[in-house]
């Protein structure tokens, strides 16, 4: 029966297609159909004025023999009963010879995992597509794989059989036997051709190495009895003994050691068999290796020895065994890390406990200067931290230039932070200059880390423990204001954060925190209510004179001062009228000036502020509000606040309405 084909619906159809007709097609046939349709579309696009007609009769020359016959759908329409190619140039029946084909050969895999191959001409047209032909397995290699001893024996005895001929680069029959664990076949091959015993594959593997890697103990025994070389490594310099340890096979290790395998040979990365055995926590193998002369102080290319590897991988039994045999518990890797540091980093509690019980040094820093306590705090391993705190010197911590509190705050480890505070670590510890330079904002305190992480709970915890909010060059209060976190702002102000601080790298004539709070008016007002200077916002060297054009530049670094800052030749810093003229802030100029006027007496607006108020008719009342003289009620309020002070004012037995007025709650006073 001819292979089924689905012809295209005619152009007269309404564009609908019965997809149930395809339900019996395989993945390969559907793929073939898609390619044919693609070719048809290309043909139609190239010659739109020409219509190609095909009859519905099967054509033997056009039938693709690579496709399996499929059953037709029940009662197919007349137009679907014949099998034909919808493309005028169907693919070839037989695949071209890849050696002589002049074009492109493309290999791919279908959704069902079947390997396919397609041949294309130089112009991109398809020549042939079909399943990728499988290479026929040579009889000898097939017989070995199937364990057919009689067949192998017959082929070996055949004069035409060349046992030194590989089935693929470097892969001989002896490797095939070792791979599949056919020890009987292996004996036959070695009897017929003893010279194969140490031949290497394309990866440098001898039959012995192949057998060990595959865990074929019977083949290992055969090869050892026939005198296979135990020391020939693969191209990664891994010996059979190393691969036996990697496979965690004590029996294979014992067999190799009984035949005199060298125990201290290192692979290309410097690993020994003992170090590989510790990875698998196999004390039995470790004991055999040490009895055979293995050294526990050899290190790999990273300066790591077996004990370090055991600690790193959390292998307690191997670690205990190595310690009992005299391994150095304070050994350091090439980067200075100790076994204790590595165990703390990876959260191996039992390893840390074991090392500390053997008096491992918890105050030995690596090249980064950090101690095991630092890395445990960073990872939030509280049980390990509780073990390290009693044996860690606070003086040694200070010399590292970074406190565990910094790392706990940076990673939002609140429980760890609380544990360290209770243990007496200094909440005002500052990063060393070298470490501070790693951050663009030059942060130094744990408080800064918590504020920038918007971690209100950690901020509260640090402030309650006595953290000073004014130690950093760029104040945590500015960070909180920039992030719009009013809760953190209030916490910092309540703990005496300096509202009127400036930024040394970006000097201003007004409190720098205003730059970040002006667009958030409730926060801006809160800062003014709690001692923020307002009079300096109206200081201007130009006064009523025209202001020079403001040149702006964009900061290359993403600092917190602002992304656009005006340049000025004045050494006093950026003025408020210049800052408020930045496009992102100028739209708020009216409400900002309106709030500021509630906190000053007689002031004169400079020409730039007047210009902003004149830019919007709705701000005319603000301009009238600034006119001199200011209301007596306003001047009295300012005088009372100046004489009494804001903090003392809260303690005075004054009527509530008066207190609200003094705190700039105008609506409450009008209501009363």
TrEMBL record:
ANK repeats lie at residues 203-235, 236-268, 269-301, 302-334, 335-367, 368-400, 400-432, 442-470, 472-504. GO terms for biological process: intracellular signal transduction; protein K6-linked ubiquitination. Keywords: ANK repeat, Repeat. Pathway: Protein modification; protein ubiquitination. Residues 58-70, 78-87 have a biased composition (Polar residues). The keyword Repeat applies. It comes from the Eukaryota. One of its GO terms (cellular component) is BRCA1-BARD1 complex. Residues 49-103 are annotated as: Disordered. Residues 622-668 form the SOCS box domain. This is Ankyrin repeat and SOCS box containing 2a, tandem duplicate 1.
């Amino acid at each position: 029966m001819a292979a089924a084909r689905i012809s295209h619906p005619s152009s007269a159809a309404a564009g609908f297609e019965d997809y149930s007709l395809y339900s019996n097609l395989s993945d390969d046939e559907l793929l073939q159909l898609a390619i044919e349709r693609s070719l048809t579309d290309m043909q139609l696009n190239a010659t739109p004025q020409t219509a190609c007609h095909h009859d519905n009769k099967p054509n033997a020359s056009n039938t693709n023999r690579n496709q399996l016959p499929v059953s037709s759908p029940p009662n197919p329409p007349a137009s679907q009963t014949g099998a034909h190619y919808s493309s005028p140039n169907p693919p070839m029946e037989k695949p071209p010879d890849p050696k002589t084909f002049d074009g492109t050969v493309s290999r791919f895999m279908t959704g069902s995992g079947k390997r396919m191959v397609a041949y294309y001409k130089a112009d991109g047209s398809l020549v042939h597509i079909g399943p990728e032909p499988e290479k026929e397995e040579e009889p000898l290699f097939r017989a070995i794989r199937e364990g057919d001893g009689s067949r192998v024996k017959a082929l070996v005895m055949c004069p035409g059989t060349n046992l030194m001929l590989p089935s693929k680069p470097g892969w001989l029959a002896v490797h095939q036997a070792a791979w599949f664990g056919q020890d009987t076949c292996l004996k036959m091959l070695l009897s017929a051709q003893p010279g194969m015993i140490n031949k290497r594959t394309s990866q440098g593997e001898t039959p012995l190495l192949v057998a060990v890697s595959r865990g074929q103990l019977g083949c290992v025994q055969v090869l050892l009895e026939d005198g296979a070389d135990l020391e020939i490594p693969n191209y990664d310099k891994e010996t059979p003994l190393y691969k036996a340890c990697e496979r965690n096979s004590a029996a294979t290790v014992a067999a190799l050691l009984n035949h005199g395998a060298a125990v201290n040979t290192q692979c290309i990365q410097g690993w020994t068999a003992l170090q590989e055995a510790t990875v698998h926590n196999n004390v039995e193998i470790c004991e055999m290796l040490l009895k055979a002369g293995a050294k526990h102080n050899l290190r790999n290319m990273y300066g790591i020895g077996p004990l370090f590897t055991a600690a790193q991988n959390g292998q307690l039994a191997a670690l205990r065994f190595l310690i009992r045999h005299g391994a150095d518990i304070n050994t350091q890797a090439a980067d200075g890390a100790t076994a204790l540091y590595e165990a703390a980093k990876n959260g191996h509690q039992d390893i840390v406990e074991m090392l500390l019980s053997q008096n491992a040094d918890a105050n030995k820093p690596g090249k980064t200067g950090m101690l095991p306590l630092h890395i445990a705090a960073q990872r939030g391993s509280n049980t390990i931290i509780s073990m390290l705190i009693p044996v860690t010197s606070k003086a040694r911590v200070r010399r590292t230039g970074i406190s565990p509190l910094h790392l706990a705050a940076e990673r939002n480890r609140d429980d760890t932070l609380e544990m360290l505070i209770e243990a007496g670590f200094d909440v005002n510890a500052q990063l060393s200059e070298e470490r501070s330079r790693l951050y663009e904002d030059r942060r130094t305190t744990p408080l800064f880390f918590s504020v920038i992480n918007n971690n209100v709970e950690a901020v509260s915890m640090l402030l309650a423990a006595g953290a000073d909010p004014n130690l950093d060059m760029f104040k945590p209060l500015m960070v909180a204001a920039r992030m719009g976190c009013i809760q953190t702002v209030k916490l910092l102000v309540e703990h005496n954060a300096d509202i009127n601080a400036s930024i040394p790298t970006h000097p201003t004539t007004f409190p720098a925190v205003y730059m970040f709070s002006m667009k958030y008016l409730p926060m801006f007002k809160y800062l003014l209510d709690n001692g923020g200077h307002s009079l300096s916002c109206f200081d201007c060297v130009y006064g009523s004179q025209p202001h020079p054009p403001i040149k702006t530049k964009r900061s290359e670094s993403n600092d917190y001062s602002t992304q656009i800052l005006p340049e000025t030749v004045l050494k006093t810093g950026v003025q408020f009228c210049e800052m408020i003229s930045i496009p992102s802030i100028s739209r708020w100029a009216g409400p900002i000036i309106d709030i500021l006027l509630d906190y000053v007496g007689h002031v004169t607006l400079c020409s730039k502020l007047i210009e902003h108020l004149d830019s919007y008719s709705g701000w005319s009342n603000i301009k009238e509000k600034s006119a001199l003289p200011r209301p007596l009620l306003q001047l009295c309020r300012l005088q009372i606040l100046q004489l009494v002070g804001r903090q003392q004012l809260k303690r005075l037995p004054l009527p509530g309405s008066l207190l609200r007025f003094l705190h700039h709650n105008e609506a409450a006073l009008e209501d009363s």
